[in-house]
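Aim 2 progress. For Kef-type K+ transport protein, the working sequence is reproduced below.
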Amino acid sequence: MDPILIAVAFGCGLVVYLIGLPPLIGFLGAGFILNAMGFESNATLSTLANLGVTLLLFSIGLKLDIKTLLRKEVWGTACGHIVSSTALFTLVLLGIKTLGFALAQELQWQQAMLMAFALSFSSTVFAVKVLEERSDMNTFYGVVAIGVLVMQDLFAVAFFSISAGKIPSPWALALLVVLPLLRPVFFRILERAGHGELQTLFAIFLALVVGYGGFQLVGLKGDLGALIIGMMLASHYSAPDLAKSFFNMKELFLVAFFLNIGLNGMPTMDALWIALILLLILPLKSLLYYQLYKRCFLRPRTALLATMSLSNYSEFGLIVAALAAQQGLLSNDWVIVASIALAISFVASAPLNANNENIYRRLMHKLSPRDPARLHPDDMPINLGDANILIVGMGRIGQGAYMELESVNPQCKLVGIDADEKKISLLKELNINVIKGDASDSDFWDKANIGTDLEYIFLAMPNHAGNLYALEQIRHANFSGRVAAIIRYPEEGAQLRELGADDVFNIYEEAGSGFARHVIEHTG
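Predicted structure tokens for this construct:
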């Protein structure tokens, strides 16, 4: 790969990051800058871009419970939105045709509907990155948003198969039958492969060879295979570690994906104007999401935050438009329109998602509240009972703190909070008092009875931003007890103390001192 590509991509990503926007916006801009400099996409870059999208879908599958797709708020919203937004954008594109743009003059209603279908998708790449940065992948609004995106990806895969005119091989059905039978074998090998590079390599083998390659071999879309393999492995205890090991890998490959968007072609003035019009229509697309979520009895906050994470155009929509152009169903200029609309929607959506909680607070009094009796079961207020110690985040550190406190003082009343339903069910089997809750949800802190019996709160979430936000909400609720939080870096401790944290613990330093104490206690 040309060093100039890497240098420009890094420079643009750094500049955008320093002004508080996601680096991916810089990578998109780098693609257009490189295009203006005379660079073109090549086979290596396209391969890396496709690999990034494939690994992204595999990592999504690792975190996805198949039951999520069967929820009404997921499949109902996804199906309702794809139909309603396709109709909306078809009318918009036909309306643009009447404005006299040369690019739109030859657009027939069938082509308008195809382009509208591409515009109806929301970005999986953008939403996953935003949710991962906020540690919101396991929150209720995050699960609902990702579920809708996976459904949209399945619609896209179905379109790829139909439009390519490929009839899946008769062996496709056999593959779908054989894979579940092989699942125990995959699990056994994962357990025997250890926790290092061998386990990661086996996961890559499953994603790219068994999933991607196997599905392509029988006439199905390879990306769908990677997603399904990830979903098959999601229940394995090593799935969270695998997802973490894939995180940086897929991030690097996705840089190539964003560069490729800008390298596909330079925009014309008509393309720029049409893309700007599509940006103005984006709030209507968002409004459709919000109304569909509300019909599923979600709280205004859940509906609004899930909507904001989906308020953009999609890389899969761009792929749909590109495939249609390859088959002569659309002109390549419309692919450029889709890429510009995608880029500027990211620019518009990034600050919204960075400030989504502040936006909700400003709008919460204007949004019509739901009757608590009619709320979705996963969106109900949380009762902490008579607990006097609350541990927020029941990962390894939270679990260790819970067990240590229980052994030191059996009389204390402990309760743990976590947003991961799978983890909660496992902890309950160990007789650990844990309830489902989203500590990044301002409504959780407003409605939880933290001011009565509660004396101490431990913030043990792995994400520093999550702990900071939770501490802000705790102080806003006038909690008079003590608050402790974990940190990884010294500057994080300073930020937490400024917000009023009573105790901070560096997990790396405490691990060393804890190790020493353990040895001293056992050796005298």
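Strands lie at 389-392, 414-418, 434-436, 456-459, 482-487, 503-506. This observation will guide construct design in the next reporting period.
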